[in-house]
Write a structure and sequence with these properties.
Distance between the termini: 32 Å
Radius of gyration: 18 Å
Order of helices and strands: EHEHEHHEHEHEEH
Helix content: 25-40%
Shape: globular
Number of strands: 7
Structural class: alpha/beta
């Protein structure tokens, strides 16, 4: 993909709010360096018909000023704010050991209220614990995550920066992006989409980040559409996906 391609535009019309078998919830975060453009890529793909039979039912962020929430509002998509620190202030009786678990359970309750078929995490910088994942699995709702690294490489934060350093150290020649199902282990779920990218000699970290973000826009759209297809096929056979 060309590194000079324009980011997904905010100017798209409202998502097609049609009867659908595959609702989508998308998590965003203000620390997302591309300011919610992965969300915008999904909005655009739904509008353009690249993602079929899908409706974004809500955007949830743990950052009050996440730009993705603004993108969602401009597209007519409901948003919600669910922040760990604020949750702790609202529940001062919770100890440090139970706060995180209670927060994640409340997040699962918030998500499941909308009765989604699929959850998409992109830029949500919060490790999701079993307190969140177990209620989803019980309800048969898989979650996808977009991670800017290849499988089994650089799990967790700053994956692009660590890959860039590994390239400079001579350890790797390429990196990439994957969309995978979310499990308790960080960035270790079954991949749906894998896209490789050669790291170019002499390029700066910022240049690599820009090329990676363009790859992310492709991967997240492909991943959501594939997950919808897998959901449709699995439910026709009365089986669950994405939980192993």
């Amino acid at each position: 993909m060309s590194a000079t391609a324009a980011p997904p535009s905010c100017a798209s019309t409202e998502p097609k709010l049609q009867a659908t078998s595959s609702g989508v919830i998308h998590f965003v975060d203000s620390l997302n360096l591309v300011c919610g453009t992965n969300l915008q890529a999904i909005i655009n793909a739904i509008n353009d018909g690249k993602i079929q039979e899908a409706q974004i039912v809500r955007v949830i962020s743990n950052r009050l000023n996440a730009y993705g929430r603004r993108r969602a509002s401009e597209a007519g998509i409901p948003t919600a704010y669910h922040n760990l620190k604020k949750f702790g202030e609202q529940h001062p009786d919770l100890g440090a050991n139970t706060l995180r678990e209670s927060y994640d359970k409340a997040l699962a309750d918030l998500v499941l209220t909308d009765q989604p078929n699929l959850i998409v995490c992109a830029g949500f910088m919060h490790i999701l614990s079993p307190a969140f994942l177990d209620p989803l699995a019980k309800s048969g709702v898989p979650a996808l995550n977009l991670h800017p690294a290849l499988p089994n490489c650089f799990p967790g934060v700053d994956a692009i920066g660590r890959a860039y350093q590994a390239f400079k150290d001579g350890s790797i020649t390429k990196t990439g992006v994957m969309v995978h199902y979310v499990i308790a282990e960080i960035d270790a779920g079954e991949p749906l989409v894998i896209k490789e990218l050669d790291i170019e000699s002499g390029e700066e970290l910022a240049q690599l980040e820009e090329r990676m973000h363009h790859l992310e826009w492709q991967a997240i759209v492909e991943g959501v559409q594939l997950a919808i297809q897998e959901l449709r096929n699995a439910r026709s056979k009365n089986v669950d996906i994405g939980f192993t």
